[in-house]
Amino acid sequence: MEVVIAPADELARLAADSIEALLTRRPRTVLGLATGSSPLKVYDELARRHKDGLSFAHARAFMLDEYVGLPAEHPERYRNVIEREIASRVDLAPGAVQGPDGNAEDLDRACADYEAAIAATGGVDLQILGIGTDGHIAFNEPGSSLASRTRIKTLTRQTREDNARFFGGAVDDVPRHCLTQGLATIMSAKHLVLLATGRAKAEAVHQLVEGPISAMWPATIMQMHPHASVLVDDAAASRLQLADYYRQTYAEKPAWQSL
Ligand SMILES: N[C@@H]1[C@@H](O)[C@H](O)[C@@H](COP(=O)(O)O)O[C@@H]1O
After folding, report:
1. Structural domain of residue 188, as residue ranges?
2. With CB atoms 3.0 to 4.6 Å apart as the test, which of 122, 216, 232, 256 could cross-link to 236 if both were Cys?
3. Which CATH number is 79's domain given?
């Protein structure tokens, strides 16, 4: 696991560098897209690079998760968020972005179909991630099986309170259920790039990097991934015990070495 502590703009550039390198090497790259505020600067950077010629025309993308039961046109439906924040700003082909169908009549079936769709592409090359204050990734709440696959989950009160800001502050308007890639699904991606900024994430980041692997802090499973990059700003790094070592390692990183 590589930990980079840097200002948010630099973190976004690093993540975008990795994505650009992948797209250049293999135009049919499969990206994993996350919602939430953490990846927004990365999406801005990718949109900027697209204007400068970076093409997503042959890429495909999979979303991490989706609320259950939000009307198709609801602005906070993750499908619409991803369309707004990234898909519509680059040249991803129509239908190139897929997400779990939170309005399916048969939700179990929708989850199984989603797993099959990801597998059919050969898997996600680079997965962008944020982290919840309780250590969840995608919507794998504390207690999630470390071996889980895409399935229906019940959101915690904490997550619904955290996400109420996207629903005009009304926690009761935040859905109670979601479909989410499981931890094993996420672990199948070839490169995980997690972004976290702000003091509210400091404990979750400490657990993720330095805590024992535990379903109580689901993101800790990333310690088992052979290629995981954890990109954090000073505030999110403020509880890291080995922060000085991570800073030194990054400062001394050879120029040719990417994330
Ligand atoms: N399902 C999403 C996660 O994918 C995201 O990582 C998390 C953190 O969000 P933010 O980046 O806004 O702090 O929020 C939601 O719960």
Report:
1. 2-251
2. 232
3. 3.40.50.1360
Residue 137 lies in a domain: yes
Does residue 182 fall inside a structural domain? yes
Ligand 1 pocket test, candidate residues 157, 163, 178, most atoms within 8 A of CB = 163
Inter-residue contact 225 to 233 (CB < 8 Å): no
- Name the catalytic one among 66, 115, 141, 162: 141
Q: What is the pTM of this model?
A: 0.97
pLDDT tens for 3-15 read: 999 999 999 999 9
**Out of 159-163, 204-208, 226-230, least confident range:** 159-163
141 counts as catalytic: yes
Distance 32 CA to ligand 1 centre (A): 14
> Which of 33, 35, 171 best tests ligand 1's pocket when mutated (most atoms within 8 Å of CB)?
35
Strands 151-154 and 177-180: antiparallel
Q: How far is the CA of 219 from the centre of ligand 1 (A)?
A: 12
Let me know if residue 256 belongs to a domain.
no
| % of the chain beyond a pLDDT of 90 | 98
Quote the ligand 1 centre to 115 CA distance (angstroms).
Answer: 21
**136 tagged catalytic:** yes
Helix (H) or strand (E) holding 22: helix 8-25
Locate all alpha helices (DSSP H) within 56-144, ordered by sequence: 78-85, 107-120
In a 3-state reduction of DSSP, which class is residue 208?
A: helix
Burial label, 7 (beta-carbon count in 10 A; 0-12, 13-18, 19+): exposed
Residue 240 has pLDDT above 90, yes or no: yes
Domains: count for the chain: 1
Whether 258 is covered by a domain: the verdict is: no
